[in-house]
Write a structure and sequence with these properties.
The chain has about 180 residues and is mainly β. Helix content is about 10%, strand content about 40%. The model has no long low-confidence stretch (mean pLDDT about 85).
């Protein structure tokens, strides 16, 4: 009788163990269309700024406004002044891609690199096989110049349906006081 009880307890334990913590199921849901925008420019103490505007933003995302409704600026590189690495780059990430118009600008804040400054602009989308959506080099001719690298429209399905390079000012001056 004791052996039968022990055998029954062992059988229940073996049956119950997989049910206590079932194996993790792969998420079958579609990931949001997160976008990564990055810029890179030559070594030195030159400060180039990335500005990104998304639908519904009252103020574009950049060094003076690091977070918006859709985008966040994760790195504001000011050149070699406070940075031990010679590589100069900035990047911004989105949380989803609601339908509407987006604009990506670069701004020559200050620097010591010979003019013009070549700024490489890359835009990639997570969850897509190709990944890279846009890549171009923007030449900034003078300190203070701001140029639109790309302006694009996203439809309700998250697809880019139109793009252009028509200049749209985004730079916001920081508030004093």
């Amino acid at each position: 009788l004791l052996m039968n009880m022990l055998l029954g307890l062992t059988a229940v334990t073996i049956i119950a163990l997989p049910l206590i913590n079932p194996p993790a199921q792969a998420d079958q849901g579609k990931q949001p269309g997160n976008m990564v925008v990055s810029i890179a420019w030559p070594e030195g103490s030159t400060d180039i700024d990335l500005w990104v505007a998304s639908p519904g933003d009252a103020v574009a995302v950049g060094y003076a406004n690091r977070a918006g409704r859709v985008f966040n600026l994760l790195r504001d590189d000011i050149g070699t002044g406070l940075d031990e690495l010679p590589l100069n780059y900035e990047n911004a990430y989105s949380r989803g891609l609601p339908a509407g118009e987006y604009t990506v600008n670069v701004h020559y804040y200050r620097g010591d690199v010979p003019i013009p400054v070549a700024v490489e602009v890359r835009m990639g989308r997570q969850g897509e096989p190709a990944g890279l959506v846009f890549s171009d080099t923007v030449l900034l001719q003078a300190q203070g110049q701001e140029r639109t690298a790309i302006s694009f429209t996203v439809d309700a399905d998250g697809k880019i349906v139109a793009q252009n390079k028509v200049y749209k000012p985004l730079r916001v001056l920081p508030k004093k006081g």
